[in-house]
Amino acid sequence: DTEVTQTPKHLVMGMTNKKSLKCEQHMGHRAMYWYKQKAKKPPELMFVYSYEKLSINESVPSRFSPECPNSSLLNLHLHALQPEDSALYLCASSRTRTSTDTQYFGPGTRLTVL
Amino acid sequence: AQSVTQLDSHVSVSEGTPVLLRCNYSSSYSPSLFWYVQHPNKGLQLLLKYTSAATLVKGINGFEAEFKKSETSFHLTKPSAHMSDAAEYFCVVSDRNYGGSQGNLIFGKGTKLSVKP
Fold this sequence. Notes:
Chain A is mainly beta.
């Protein structure tokens, strides 16, 4: 099974709201990732967790706050977002961060910020 | 530095004809290369990957790719296109630098494949 699940599928929020995106995998992977994808563009890396520790934050604004409560779960907390943050947010996981390990992607959360 | 160039932003084929999506890479190391497919409003699905084993890699749904070191290419092919193949395709290299960026994916800009009936 190579499934990564993400909830919710769609999210509409105002600029003053606080919401969270959730990602889960049960493949025993120890690396998990958040990506942001705008229309007609490739995904852009936001955060990387390795063994439940944040190892990369690609200069993401503080209104995005990641959390890795355990090896199977990854959250992305959202607060005071801007309309330009509207995008598809993808979660991925891989066995480790070795370059030969495949990253498996979830179906994404389509976020709209009003 | 590693990079990926997808030579066509859009490819259009007729159903039942061959598909060729072109990808060139740049890497100082022996690369790990991937092709992913993304259908509209969906996540990315792995089609196939190359990690220095056989140079001809077979993937899902009849796709295959050949790693050619002399040409620094990793083109994706399929003998006969199906309507369900219409999607965005990304050629990807995985960062092999031993450091903070190891394992990060470097994406090409994508090729949109259209399949005409």
